[in-house]
Amino acid sequence: MHIKKLFILLSSFALVLAAIFYLLYPFASFTPSFAFPLRLSTDSIRFSSSDSIDLPSSSMSWIDKKIATMSIEDKVAQLFVIDLYTVNKTSSVLDVTPSIEAFMTEYPVGGIILFSDNVDTANQTKKLISDLQSAASIPLLISIDEEGGLVSRIGSKNIGVDHLPNAATLPSDYSSSQVEKMARTLGQQLASFGINMNFAPVLDVNTNPNNPVIGSRAFSWDPTIVGEYGTAFMQGLLSENILPVGKHFPGHGDTTTDSHLERTSIDQTLDELRRLEWLPFQQTIDAGIPLIMTGHIHTPNITQDDLPASLSKAMTTDYLRGELGFDGVVVTDSLRMKAITNEYDASEVGILVLEAGGDLILLPDDFQSCYEGIIKALDSGRLTEERIDRSLRRIFALKNTLMETAVED
Question: What is the pTM of this model?
Fold first, then answer.
């Protein structure tokens, strides 16, 4: 009997210490596991019938506490998603080197994107991701492009991840519910490696058969089919706690040039975009997609700023956030693309992303210059710390949905 009372007393004391610990260190339970570094806590996050993410208000307190303890330099670093080439200046990086560890200590970036050159064997890839998470002071968004078909960074490696068919073939061969199951299986496989974000589905409508970059990557030329299958793909990934990224707003399907190589634009009017290109984006937004990628696409008949959507406040804030009602995380397409590097200096491009209303800055051509440009814009007053905090809250809210252990107030 005395032993039982002693056990209860010690247990109560341990709970009190744990509560004090979490209050003093609001990120303490944000600890990655090996198998799935950022696993969803179903105790903390509730999914609606549409599989959208519903962040409990109690979680906001630890987010604000964490933000309050961060230096402005660390806040800015969290806005970046980089690849390992950024650090080592070589594409074939298969493990975490001392230089990568040192870089992540100095620049605690928000995420890492992996490419085929980072993937060799299953064990190597799992260890690489685990070591990256171990080197991070704040757990990372570990992302990859795994659309299937032509764009497959890990599925094409034959190491335990399905290589899905081109999106264009799916509607004729499978129902949307079958595609959701395929995406769910893909999500399970990605999660087993520690990947927690997939730059898919493609929500572009293949309206121009001569488009040089989308083509078979799109589900269809019919926006209702794209919306149906894009939503199914999104929900399959979300069901396995993989963050889907819908791309490429405002729509890349009717371009005649490739933004990887040159300046790209679409000539549609606003009404035409509303009737066609934006329908799949609206459907997935209504279904709760957590991230949207903005493309480097000019819209001369809609905006007068002569900026691509990824850098345009009119397109990102007024239309994507305002009209379509998206309040999740906006991530740019790769800023290494020629549509950006041919026209904008790296020191300016990150500032423009934030002024437009974007949150995550993907693959700047020169990380150091882009990062320092934002710091200088903060020093000069062009950007404010409140603006940085606004994006950080969205990013941390997103990461909170992936935490293994809930952080409560």
Answer: 0.85
